[in-house]
Amino acid sequence: MADPSASYLGNTLIEEISPVVMVLRTPLVEDSCRKNGLSFVDALRPFSLFNDIDVPVRTASDQPYRLHKFKLRLHYASEIRQPDLEVSKEHLKKVVTQASDVDTSDLRSDPPQIDSLLKAAESESLSSWFQIFNKELIHIASFSEHEALDHPVACLLVVSSKDEKPINKFVELFDTNQLPSLLNDSVMDPKILKHYLLLHDNQDGTLEKASNILAEMRSTFGSNECRLLTINSAEDGSTDWQDNPWIPHKIDASISQHLGCLLNMDDINEMKNFMQDLASKQIIPHMEQKIRVLNQQVSATRKGFRNQIKNLWWRKGKDDAPETSSGQMYAFNSIESQMRVLGDYAFMLRDYELALSNYRLLSTDYKLDKAWKRYAGVQEMMGLAFFMLDQSKKDVEYCMENALSTYLKLGSSGQQNVTRCGLWWTEILKARDQYKEAAGVYFRISNEGPSLQAAVMLEQASYCYLLSNPPMLRKYGFHLVLAGNRYYISEQRKHAIRAYRSAISVYKGNAWSFINDHVHYHIGKWYSFIEIFDVALQHLLEVVACTHQSVATQELFLRDFLQTVQKLGKAFEVFRMQLPVINIPSLKVLFEDQRTYGSVGAVNIKESLWKCLEEDMIPLLPAARTNWLESQSKLPKKSKDSNICVAGEQIRVEIEFRNPLKIPISVSGASLICQLSAEPESVESEVVNQADNNVDGNSSATVFQNDSELIKLKRNWEQNAGSSFVLSEVDFSLGGSETTVIQFAVTPKVEGILNIVGVRWKLSDSVIGYHSFDSTLLKKKTVKGRRRGGQNAQSPLKFTVIKSLPKLECCIHHLPSKAYAGELHRLVLELKNRSKFPVKNMRMKISDPRFLNAGSLDDMKIEFPICLEKQINSQDSIMQPNVVQGSNGLLFSFPEILGDQLLGDCVIGETTFTWPLWLHTSTTGRISLYMSIYYEMENSSNDIRYRTLRTQYDLEVLPSLDMSVQVAPCPSRLQEFLVRMDVTNRSSSESFLLHQFSSVGYDWEISSLPPDGTTHPFQMLTAGQALSCFFKLKKCNNLETEGMPSSTTLRGSDVRLGPRDSDKALFDISRAPLANFHSYERLDQGKSIQGSSSVDFILISQQKQNASAASDPPRLFSHHSCHHRQESEATICKIVRRDRAVVIDFVDVSYDLIVMKFVSCNIINHNKSIRTTEPASILDNLTKKVKQIIEKGVHHGVAPGDLIVIHGIESGVFVGVEICFPLGVASSPRSSLSGIAEASTNIHISIYSKSSNPQPLQLHVYSPTTTYFSNLSNSYKMALAEQRVLLAREQTDGKGGCSGLDTSKDTNCLNNLRKQTWNPHITSSRSNFPRIHKQENSTT
Amino acid sequence: MLRKRRRSDQIRSLRPRSVARKMIVCVSIVGHQNNPLFLHSFTEADDALKLHHVVHCSLDVIDERGSHVVPFAYEINNPKKTGSTLNETFLGLLYPTESYKVYGYLTNTKVKFILVTTDVDVRDADVRNVSALSLRLLLQYAFFFRRFHSAYVDAVSNPFHVPGKKINSRSFAERVSTIVKSFGLGGAV
């Protein structure tokens, strides 16, 4: 360590622990000095510090040394007492306030960074006012009785030359009554060194008189003790001091100009000399001498072994004495007081060894006497002496700790001394670079004393942490926060702000958000107290969007923020405000170029879906398309990468706003910021220039001058007044933590380039937030986003505005949002053209014509549902299967000519045009209907030739009736079938009235089963009810017309359901729209087979109406069930009989024949016999087929469940048997061949009408297998005279087994063939025999 | 504001003193970048800010020591014990007149576990009988921290946890509460 006396503390000690000179003066002396704006003491003070004197001194033991630096403390007698606490407090406050005035000039600048703080702390520029403050604190503790440091060493008596009887005045001045209590209370030796000074004011007269007085004084008081001082020698009061020596000593520098204005160089030199003489010739020798005297006394009484024993003994005896901690018991002539004086004098003269030895002695004495304050004072001095001697750290620390804790124990009486002692200690520690420990001491003493003092102490502690190695930044911040808090309590707001500001850098960027919020919030609040609102808002802005705080805190923050904004008195504008939070990636731009949208839902549909839908429609106009592309390339290059929009049409922007707080906030006047310019090139540069101008010039309106982005936005906003476009304003409020999507709109009015720059909103009507759309963020979004890829992915917010075009709007009336399955509605499509220009060539495409269909204008003429009813005079219902063929299935072209009127003219101006649409909800669930309407411009501009209008609707379809139909051949008649219709009401609450059941098919006619009767008397079907009805289906094509089997007409026939006397009209299923929907249903339900055997059924029902809703038109339902095949046109009823079970034993034979009886019965009504004309060929043919089937099965490996057809023949009777092998049995190809009967012989049978003909049936079994004929069917083939081959098939329910060797004796092949009925499940069984169908077709 | 809180806390801290010998006021996890990962206080009062400060400040001490040693447990703060035998772990007065003790635990990945307690009686006790009591206490704290650590490891092993982000798992908070409760009840290890 360096020389301790060279350290800051050493200097301070030399200055602060120095001899006190008591000054007594007459009022006239003071008057003379006042002319200079100074008191007498003040005038002399600059010269009481001697930096370069050279005074030889001898220690008590005659060791010579020299003093180079010395200081005298001049005080008026009135000042020599303990300072009043209140006064000193005020004084301290003044110091702090002054410092705050100096220091807070940069309050508006940004908070300091840690790096700069570290640098500043190292250069100690921060602490200048701390030193002043600390000195003031030390002064407060001065003039205490318990120590001799501040006892006046000398007395300076000053009398003016103007005074009358100056000699008497000198005597009067030292009037004991006015002397300070220290002298009067016999705490100190009243015999004090006196020095007499005669002050002469040169303005009052010549020196002569003064010289006379001086001579007189010399004779009275002795020549050495008298002196003459001349002041005010300057001619005029205009002496200007380059560096006024008094200024550093004056606290209030306001009057500094006139300080010492009447003093010239001679005066000052004289004063200097006077003070130097006083010190070196009077005081120091006096002290030196006193030290000797006292030292001798002390060594005589206390030093040496004997004295110590005696002292101990004597002290012990005094233990019983009453304890007085005030120290009154030590008179000035007591040995303790003398030792103290000796020690202090020695300290002042820097004989630290002597001082220390005395202090040591004293401390034990005081300790024994329990004079704690004195003890602490001595310990304190010991610590300082140790420090000055550069002794061990431990001693210093021990002494200081002792002193401090002893003072602390004293309570309030020791408060000032605690502070002083602590300050000494911290300085000692600082001088030794023990900053951390110093901080701790600061912290300890901060607990004592008023909060202002505590604040300064804490702040100093924080700087100590900063200076410690390594810097303890967090503690630094924490102590700054504490200090700031104390500053605030003691109403030093600027200091509080300064402290908190410095702390910001510690917490910034960290996740310690609670602390960060606290700091920012308080800074903001305090700034607003001192009415620097803009900075206050900057800080409050940091905390206003705090998500992690509690609701109460958020409310508090927000309220204070808004209050501050109000106090600001003008609109507060924030760039990128976090309240509410804008989710930029959620930004969606919705605009219409050639694609227009009819509904919100339509916008959100994927572009590809629309493309797909419009595929057929747009290529129809290849010219338009190429033209459009060409025109695109013709456009200025700038616009190539931008979207195209039409003037007068809205561009909508959707952004997601999120409230980060748990409390609701309200936003008003939110709108987009756009810029529209005619010249594409000039846009960018113009804006930049404007922004630059704004920065340079008057930007008074904005708060953040440096934020050019904000200015840019603002400027754009202000330009809106030009109103080349219209912006929408949205007001909304967000609940706690809520997220909403807000849609903004901008409508350009003129052509040009439109740029959407950002968004602007008002929070709680006071704060204006701006947010720009960062294009880089958006680009990402667009590439993967839903907006069109391709040509305009670059800049989704830049638009080329072209001149206005016609635009159709559409809406569909009567569209229900909820419907029941099968419901039929007539909708009205209304098209509106808002522009003056006509459109032409309109087409429409609907995504699913099964649900929605275009009608014809005629449909509109009659009220629904009457328009669907059968006309009285209508022909026998011949259905036209492809009514919609004209519109090419899905595409519908509106006719150009509509009545007398041209359609193009119709959709003109602000007229509307309606067209009926039919809706049929054929399936349940949610249905989305997409509709695209294409139209061309009459006066096509270059940019866009055509437009499409896209709409989308959602329906929810609830289940209603569930119809299923089964067709079975009529057992009694050949050309008739039984139809069983099962209908179930699956709706939850609705009831339905069955109205009509119709069949659609070639040559089929349906009738109710009891002829001419109603099928079912109970027309109504309530919820959950099921019903079965039977109908008769008849083929009306009789045998005479069989020559032309492939009829092309679809015939419909209807049966009315319900009570017999119902007079309700039947609905015409042969006309649009029912026929159309039916054909789509057919398409949907399966591939149409152009065969005669397919029939479709339609059930028409109505909803049961409540009485209340009677006024509504009845709701009509149609249910379609298609493709019911009836491939077997049976003519023969047959029974296979087998009397007993057969067991075949394959041990004996290689194969066996099973003989069954086959009874055929001709059930055809007419008399014709059935005969085969060319039986041989038919059978040959058949056999081949059978073999093929089997081989195929072998080849491919018969899959389980497949069929093998076996035909047996015996004695001219041909029988075909189909054996269905159950799963897994026909595992090997060989075994699949095993049970085959063979057709070998031609037969010829004739069965006459209504007769039966039993025939034996033979089945060959070749090899032992176990075969379950669980699903056995047999079929036979019969050639009719007309050479039509009919295949009937019969399925037996019986379970048979042909058991081979390995199967036991237990029975039976085909033993329980029971009576067979016609399989009612003919459709389901059909799917089991796909191959058979193919065969059958080919054979016909 | 702070001062007001301090006073109310003083009053409050008087109450549990007689009831519980030591009380865990707050547990906290701080990430390797000194970012708070978890902080849970077990007092009824709204003193989150104060505890944040306390925890934040104690990071200074951990920084100071963590650079050269991975301690298994050490005592950080004891304001009134200047010059006592535990001087080596002396942190300095973290908070005025508040008799908190802060204990720390540093993992290999520089994640810090910080525990703030108010065990006033113990402090007085181990001034008198340092060697026996403090050793037992340290073991107790080490045990606590080990359990705390394993709970933390389980929490961050959650595949949905983003490393370096705050731990918002409710089950983790519950588990920590259980550990803290068992610590308060257990008394001795």
From TrEMBL, chain A:
A GO cellular component annotation here is: TRAPPIII protein complex
SUPFAM superfamilies, from UniProt? Answer: TPR-like
Q: Which residues form the TPPC8 second Ig-like domain?
A: 822-949
Superkingdom is Eukaryota
**What are the start and end residues of every segment in region (Disordered)?**
1320-1340
- InterPro entries per record: Ig_TPPC8_1st, Ig_TPPC8_2nd, TPR-like_helical_dom_sf, TRAPP_III_complex_Trs85
State the Pfam families in the record.
Ig_TPPC8_1st (PF24545), Ig_TPPC8_2nd (PF24544), TRAPPC-Trs85 (PF12739)
Domain TPPC8 first Ig-like: residue ranges: 607-786
What Gene3D superfamilies does this protein map onto?
Answer: Tetratricopeptide repeat domain
Q: Which PANTHER family match?
A: TRAFFICKING PROTEIN PARTICLE COMPLEX SUBUNIT 8, TRANSPORT PROTEIN TRAPP
This chain's protein is named Trafficking protein particle complex subunit 8
UniProtKB/TrEMBL annotation, chain B:
Q: Which domain of life is it from?
A: Eukaryota
One GO CC term on file: cytoplasm
A single GO BP term for this record reads:
endoplasmic reticulum to Golgi vesicle-mediated transport
Which CDD domains did the record assign? TRAPPC2L
Task: Identify the InterPro entries for this entry.
Answer: Longin-like_dom_sf, Sedlin, TRAPPC2L
Which PANTHER family does the protein's record reference?
TRAFFICKING PROTEIN PARTICLE COMPLEX SUBUNIT 2
Which family is this protein grouped under? Belongs to the TRAPP small subunits family. Sedlin subfamily.
Q: By what name is this protein known?
A: Trafficking protein particle complex subunit 2-like protein
